[in-house]
Design brief:
The chain is an alpha/beta fold. The chain has 17 helices and seven strands. Helix content is 63%, strand content 13%. It starts with a helix and ends with a helix.
């Protein structure tokens, strides 16, 4: 057992790979938000806002990689762990600057952005903190602090920046302000503060574990006062974080139990639960069950109540929504016959309307038919050299108005070809005969008998 514990300590030992002095210098240098850091932060916030706006996870990840948000938070945790009040003040001041700049940048983007999503899933995901967010922030804070203290640093900080996801909640705060959505504003800001608090708490604990040098003043009274101040700040951070963690765990469990209750009673009798919604803001929290099918009787409701109670949820927390359900009431023979008669009447009426519409379409088609055979005989009586006529409708383009106009094309076969005056006379006659002001005559020589027969068959 002693050998195993010694082996375990040797694996977890970091004394030969940690440089607390250079880590303190690096953290203190990275807490300031001015100059390039402000420009980089604004650019990162805009990129993240665009990613949230278009539901693009790769864009959000890219924004988190270039974001300098972790600096003041880790600096605050280090100040708590080393009793450094100056570092605490500077970190807190720069943290406020960071938050204000981020919210202003994201709010301005969402005000001017022309994109409006019907289902902004990535944005909505940043308004409902869960226990997993707490665990990720805490573990990420430890990993980030350990990486900062390593002599040979790798890419862990980039992964921590992505995992802890500080930027998306801030962007969602800006979105909520731009859209005057108070509930989303509270949820997103709450998620951001949870992440910050647990990252700072993880940094504080890691600082103590790695034995960072504690700042001490020569004035014992001042040192004691500062120690009390830092202890008070620690209390202010730890107590709300514990309470929020407990609340998040309860809400997460309630949502999980609600899903289990629904899955256990998805179908009951001739009814089924087609959707459910948890209301965590009410006291106590409630589960709304949206029912379809027939109305539940008391025995069926009792079964659901017992299922809920087995998971620690009381009867008063179950709310049935049966707007989509129907009443199971016996129907008399007379009502059945009346219902069938009414349905048949509706079918007959719909069929008559369909027939009427088809007849109107047929009349419209017939009105456009042209008496080709009669016109051919009339032209043959007027011009003995006319041997055949083909009439067709088409469309001609009007260049000035970029529109089209209906046109009748008349192909007149004759032997020999007609004179231009005869063609003009036939054109005027056809305009009156067919009631159209747009008639175009094409005069062709009489084809052979076989070609005429083919043209006649086609028509």
């Amino acid at each position: 057992m002693n050998k195993f514990s010694a082996y375990l300590r040797s694996i977890l030992s970091m004394s030969d790979q940690i440089d607390t002095e250079s880590a303190s210098i690096s953290i203190k240098n990275n807490i300031y938000f001015k100059g390039p850091n402000v420009i980089i932060l604004i650019c990162a916030i805009v990129i993240a806002s665009i990613g949230l706006n278009v539901n693009s996870i790769p864009v959000i990840i890219g924004a988190m990689l270039i974001s300098p948000l972790m600096g003041p938070i880790i600096g605050f945790g280090l100040g708590l762990g080393t009793n450094d009040t100056d570092l605490l003040k500077n970190a807190l001041k720069n943290f406020l600057v960071m938050v204000i700049v981020s919210i202003l940048a994201s709010t301005l983007y969402f005000i001017v952005s022309p994109l409006t999503l019907e289902h902004p899933t990535e944005l909505l995901a940043r308004t409902n903190p869960t226990i997993y967010d707490v665990l990720i922030a805490f573990a990420g804070g430890i990993a980030g602090m350990v990486e900062t203290c390593r002599k040979e640093r790798g890419v862990v900080l980039s992964g921590v920046a992505i995992a802890t996801a500080l930027m998306p909640p801030l962007c969602t705060v800006g979105y909520s302000i731009a859209n005057l959505d108070f509930s989303s504003f509270i949820g997103a800001l709450y998620l951001f503060m949870i992440n910050c608090i647990f990252i700072a708490l993880a940094t504080f604990l890691t600082t103590k574990y790695l034995s960072f040098p504690v700042v001490k003043l020569e004035d014992a009274k001042l040192d004691k006062r500062r120690t009390r101040t830092i202890a008070f700040l620690m209390l202010v951070i730890i107590v709300p974080s514990i309470l929020s963690a407990i609340k998040v765990v309860k809400e997460s469990n309630f949502n999980r139990y609600a899903a289990i209750i629904v899955s256990e009673n998805k179908s009951i009798g001739k009814s089924y639960i087609y959707d459910h919604k948890t209301n965590l803001s009410s006291k106590p929290a409630t589960i709304e069950l949206f029912m379809a099918g027939e109305l539940l009787d008391e025995l069926q409701k009792e079964k659901i109540y017992q299922s809920a109670e087995s998971h620690g949820i009381t009867r008063s927390q179950i709310v049935f929504r049966e707007d989509a359900a129907i009443q199971n009431v016996p129907i008399s023979d007379e009502e059945i016959v009346r219902s069938i008669y009414e349905q048949n009447e509706k079918r007959l009426q719909a069929r008559e309307e369909t027939i009427k519409g088809l007849e109107q379409e047929l009349d419209a088609y017939r009105s456009k038919e042209m008496p080709v055979a009669l016109i051919a005989r009339e032209l043959g009586a007027q011009y003995s050299n006319v041997t055949g006529v083909v009439l067709t409708r088409g469309e001609s383009s009007m260049l000035e108005s970029n529109a089209t106009k209906e046109e009748i094309i008349a192909i007149v076969y004759s032997k020999p070809l007609l004179s231009s005056s005869s063609i003009k006379t036939i054109e005027n006659w056809l305009k009156i005969r067919l009631g159209s002001s747009n008639v175009n005559i094409i005069n062709k020589p009489t084809p052979k008998v076989e070609e005429m027969q083919a043209a006649s068959d086609t028509q």
